Each structure stands twice: as structure tokens, then as C-alpha cells.
């Protein structure tokens, strides 16, 4: 079983639980995800089966998009709806005031990673320290908010669309917006809508998978190269394909450092290669040869 499943993760389920449930439904011997979603969050969770797991890291640095509901007037210790309330006040904020504050968070900003996070200190996740009441110093990190659009505001809850860079904590963004408004806030709900060029509209739920007969589930999988679809595609001749499959670099004219999706002459995905400064195309990550047609 090789391919990519675009899963619409349900509310209240951890990413690993969702992964294991999908793995059982597809009877996949090898599976992995491309970055976690909190149990509170729903939406797009790309999962990899078989040889596709070799490319799971490709999405770790990708731009992501979310639809977030930010509840004003209530701050929590985790910056989301699962945390304990640490402050509460009346909200008297106009939509214009909110729009003015949102403007401050567009572009390059600095965030303080939350204590309730999986970042590690001395081999231990920060959330373990937080559960013991220990607050550690954390360095600020720079992230980029490419888009921050207000969709609706009822005076207490704001629904916003966020496009952001790797490493952005949307719950920290929600809390920081609350601080800037002077009333506090937390992330009430979160839905991931896009990872790189993959969208939640392409995703399928666990219930929908389970409703299908086992024989029909493989049709739900995107191809092996789905996670690197943004890379230029090149086709290799039969001789070059054979050499590439055996780890040999081949002469190539192109920009040094460029990464390419490599296909054989019969349109079989071989893997990802990188153009070297010496004018060679060198394999970076290859699909196992026993998953490909026999080399000529």
C-alpha cells in the first residue's frame, strides 16, 4: 500500500490516533503523518503509506492555512479552549478596532512559543514542565503571517482566515491579538484548510473510508509524488532511469541546487533528485526499486 491519504481529521482525536485508525482501514504496514494537528483542531492531515513515508518531511516547512475562531474576553493558560481560564473581562471592541489590531500581525512577526507545546527542553516536552507549574524561558521565534482576514465578528468571537509559515502557533496568535486589544482572548476552534498545495476540499473522513469496501479504498489515495507536486517534473530515458535506480548520478544541465521530481519513460515516479554544482542530477530520495517496473 503506497500513496498519500488526505484525511479530514475529526474534532477531539489526536493526529496519531487518526493515523493508526487510517492505517488499520488501509491495512498499511508502514504509515506516517506530515505534522500534527492538536485534538482541538479539525481539517487537513496528510498521511503517508508505504513508500510515500519517505517524502513526509517535505511538508514540515510548507505554508499552511487555517480557519480560526478567536474568543475575546477570556484568556486561558494553554491559549485554547482546553485550558483553564486565567482572566476574564467584558468585551467592548468594535470591528474597526479589531481590524486595526489584525493589521499589526500581518507580515513578519515574533511569537513566544507556548509552554503547553511539544517543543523540548533537555529532552522533555515543554508541556510536561507546564503541567508541573514550571515556566521556562523560551526564545522568541520569527514567523510570517501571509494572510490574516476577518470573516465575521459578533462582538465576542471573531472568525479569521490565517495563512502562515512553518512554526506558527495559531493559538499564540489568538492570545496575542487578545493582549493587543486589551481584553484577552483564546483560540476557540481551529480548522486546517490547506498544507502547501493540498486542500481540505480534497480530503476524506474516517467515516467515509470505513463506509467503503476494503477493495475500493485504494482509489482514495493520492499518488506517491503528491507531497512534492510543487517540484518541476522531468522524465528520464530508460538508461538514465536504470542508473538513477542504482544510485548513480547522471549528467544534467540545470541550476545547481534545484530539486526535481523524476519519472521514468513509462511515467513511473522514481523519486526526488538534486542538481549538483558539477552538472549532475543526484538522487536525493528514491522509491524502492521493487515498487517500480523492472529496469531495462
From TrEMBL:
<feature type="domain" description="tRNA pseudouridine synthase II TruB subfamily 1 C-terminal">
    <location>
        <begin position="232"/>
        <end position="287"/>
    </location>
</feature>
<dbReference type="GO" id="GO:0031119">
    <property type="term" value="P:tRNA pseudouridine synthesis"/>
</dbReference>
<dbReference type="InterPro" id="IPR032819">
    <property type="entry name" value="TruB_C"/>
</dbReference>
<keyword id="KW-0819">tRNA processing</keyword>
<dbReference type="GO" id="GO:1990481">
    <property type="term" value="P:mRNA pseudouridine synthesis"/>
</dbReference>
<dbReference type="InterPro" id="IPR015240">
    <property type="entry name" value="tRNA_sdUridine_synth_fam1_C"/>
</dbReference>
<feature type="domain" description="Pseudouridine synthase II N-terminal">
    <location>
        <begin position="23"/>
        <end position="170"/>
    </location>
</feature>
<dbReference type="Pfam" id="PF09157">
    <property type="entry name" value="TruB-C_2"/>
</dbReference>
<dbReference type="InterPro" id="IPR014780">
    <property type="entry name" value="tRNA_psdUridine_synth_TruB"/>
</dbReference>
<feature type="domain" description="tRNA pseudouridylate synthase B C-terminal">
    <location>
        <begin position="171"/>
        <end position="228"/>
    </location>
</feature>
<dbReference type="GO" id="GO:0160148">
    <property type="term" value="F:tRNA pseudouridine(55) synthase activity"/>
</dbReference>
<dbReference type="Pfam" id="PF16198">
    <property type="entry name" value="TruB_C_2"/>
</dbReference>
<comment type="function">
    <text>Responsible for synthesis of pseudouridine from uracil-55 in the psi GC loop of transfer RNAs.</text>
</comment>
<feature type="active site" description="Nucleophile">
    <location>
        <position position="38"/>
    </location>
</feature>
<keyword id="KW-0456">Lyase</keyword>
<dbReference type="InterPro" id="IPR036974">
    <property type="entry name" value="PUA_sf"/>
</dbReference>
<dbReference type="InterPro" id="IPR015947">
    <property type="entry name" value="PUA-like_sf"/>
</dbReference>
<dbReference type="InterPro" id="IPR002501">
    <property type="entry name" value="PsdUridine_synth_N"/>
</dbReference>
<dbReference type="Pfam" id="PF01509">
    <property type="entry name" value="TruB_N"/>
</dbReference>
<dbReference type="GO" id="GO:0016829">
    <property type="term" value="F:lyase activity"/>
</dbReference>
<dbReference type="GO" id="GO:0003723">
    <property type="term" value="F:RNA binding"/>
</dbReference>
<dbReference type="InterPro" id="IPR020103">
    <property type="entry name" value="PsdUridine_synth_cat_dom_sf"/>
</dbReference>
<keyword id="KW-0413">Isomerase</keyword>
<protein>
    <recommendedName>
        <fullName>tRNA pseudouridine synthase B</fullName>
        <ecNumber>5.4.99.25</ecNumber>
    </recommendedName>
</protein>
<comment type="similarity">
    <text>Belongs to the pseudouridine synthase TruB family. Type 1 subfamily.</text>
</comment>
Amino acid at each position: 500500500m503506497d500513496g498519500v491519504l488526505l484525511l479530514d481529521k475529526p474534532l477531539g482525536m489526536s493526529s496519531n490516533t487518526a493515523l493508526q485508525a487510517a492505517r488499520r482501514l488501509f491495512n498499511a504496514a508502514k504509515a506516517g503523518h506530515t505534522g500534527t494537528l492538536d485534538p482541538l483542531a479539525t481539517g487537513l492531515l496528510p498521511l503517508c503509506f508505504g513508500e510515500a513515508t519517505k517524502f513526509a518531511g517535505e511538508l514540515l516547512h510548507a505554508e499552511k492555512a487555517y480557519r480560526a475562531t478567536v474568543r475575546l474576553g477570556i484568556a486561558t493558560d494553554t491559549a485554547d479552549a482546553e485550558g483553564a481560564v486565567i482572566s476574564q473581562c467584558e468585551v467592548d471592541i468594535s470591528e474597526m478596532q479589531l481590524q486595526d489590531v489584525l493589521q499589526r500581525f500581518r507580515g513578519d512577526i515574533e511569537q513566544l512559543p507556548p509552554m503547553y507545546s511539544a517543543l523540548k527542553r533537555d529532552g522533555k516536552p515543554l508541556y510536561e514542565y507546564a503541567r508541573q507549574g514550571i515556566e521556562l524561558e523560551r526564545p522568541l521565534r520569527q514567523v510570517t503571517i501571509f494572510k490574516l482576514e476577518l470573516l465575521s465578528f459578533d462582538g465576542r468571537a471573531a472568525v479569521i482566515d490565517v495563512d502562515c509559515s512553518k512554526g506558527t502557533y495559531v493559538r499564540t496568535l489568538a492570545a496575542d491579538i487578545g493582549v493587543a486589544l486589551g481584553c484577552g482572548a483564546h483560540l476557540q476552534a481551529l480548522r486546517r484548510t490547506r498544507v502547501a498545495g493540498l486542500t481540505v476540499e480534497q480530503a476524506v473522513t474516517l467515516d467515509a473510508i470505513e463506509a467503503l469496501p476494503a477493495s475500493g479504498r485504494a482509489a482514495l489515495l493520492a499518488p506517491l509524488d503528491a507531497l512534492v507536486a510543487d517540484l518541476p517534473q522531468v522524465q528520464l530515458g530508460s538508461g538514465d532511469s536504470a542508473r538513477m535506480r542504482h544510485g548513480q548520478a547522471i549528467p544534467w544541465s540545470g541550476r545547481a541546487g534545484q530539486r526535481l521530481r523524476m519519472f521514468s519513460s513509462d511515467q513511473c515516479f522514481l523519486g526526488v533528485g538534486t542538481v549538483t554544482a558539477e552538472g549532475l542530477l543526484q538522487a536525493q530520495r528514491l522509491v524502492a526499486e521493487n515498487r517500480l517496473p523492472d529496469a531495462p
